[in-house]
Amino acid sequence: MANRFGASSLHQRDPRSALFENYNAGASSRNASSSPAPRGYGYNGGGGVGGYSGGGGYSGGGGYGEREDSAQGFSSATPNSRGQYSDAVLNELESQNNDQVEGIMGKVRQLKSMTIAIGDEIRESSALAEKMNDNFEGARVRIRGTMNRMLIMSQKTGNAKRERERRVNRADSGKKGRKKERKKERKKERHNG
């Protein structure tokens, strides 16, 4: 039974363990003679833990991860002679990864909210600029109409003024002509008398 579990390839080279395959170069160079005796999934070799004895089915060669002594616990990210990591190490790394992913997602949410706020400000600014352009266009049209009316009024005023000047000139010329005629008549009377 122990050989069957030891030779199982179910937990061989988990993809997550590839992250640390170069972490400890010395650990991968150890041979089988210098490695400690094969142990199980972190269970004590003596008295059983959780109902499992040290010589039970979970002990023996080729267990998933190398077990340290019960007082020491697992070593930090150190593989066993087969390059395998304990479940506790992998779970801790996964927990750290989840924490980092959660932090990144929080930053992404903040960035998204900031982007939405910036988009709202841009839309409001665009609407305000368009409204200002409309106001400027309306003011331009009103000023142009006012200038046209002023030009027409000035033209009318100029025509009326010229007409008055013509009438005055005509009246003056008529008076001068009558004066000349009177002078001529007086000269004739004097000459005849």
UniProtKB/TrEMBL annotation:
<keyword id="KW-0333">Golgi apparatus</keyword>
<keyword id="KW-1133">Transmembrane helix</keyword>
<feature type="compositionally biased region" description="Basic and acidic residues">
    <location>
        <begin position="160"/>
        <end position="175"/>
    </location>
</feature>
<feature type="compositionally biased region" description="Basic residues">
    <location>
        <begin position="176"/>
        <end position="193"/>
    </location>
</feature>
<feature type="compositionally biased region" description="Low complexity">
    <location>
        <begin position="26"/>
        <end position="41"/>
    </location>
</feature>
<feature type="compositionally biased region" description="Polar residues">
    <location>
        <begin position="72"/>
        <end position="83"/>
    </location>
</feature>
<feature type="region of interest" description="Disordered">
    <location>
        <begin position="26"/>
        <end position="83"/>
    </location>
</feature>
<keyword id="KW-0653">Protein transport</keyword>
<keyword id="KW-0812">Transmembrane</keyword>
<dbReference type="InterPro" id="IPR039899">
    <property type="entry name" value="BET1_SNARE"/>
</dbReference>
<dbReference type="GO" id="GO:0015031">
    <property type="term" value="P:protein transport"/>
</dbReference>
<feature type="region of interest" description="Disordered">
    <location>
        <begin position="153"/>
        <end position="193"/>
    </location>
</feature>
<dbReference type="GO" id="GO:0000139">
    <property type="term" value="C:Golgi membrane"/>
</dbReference>
<protein>
    <recommendedName>
        <fullName>t-SNARE coiled-coil homology domain-containing protein</fullName>
    </recommendedName>
</protein>
<feature type="compositionally biased region" description="Gly residues">
    <location>
        <begin position="42"/>
        <end position="64"/>
    </location>
</feature>
<feature type="domain" description="T-SNARE coiled-coil homology">
    <location>
        <begin position="91"/>
        <end position="153"/>
    </location>
</feature>
<keyword id="KW-0813">Transport</keyword>
<dbReference type="InterPro" id="IPR000727">
    <property type="entry name" value="T_SNARE_dom"/>
</dbReference>
<keyword id="KW-0472">Membrane</keyword>
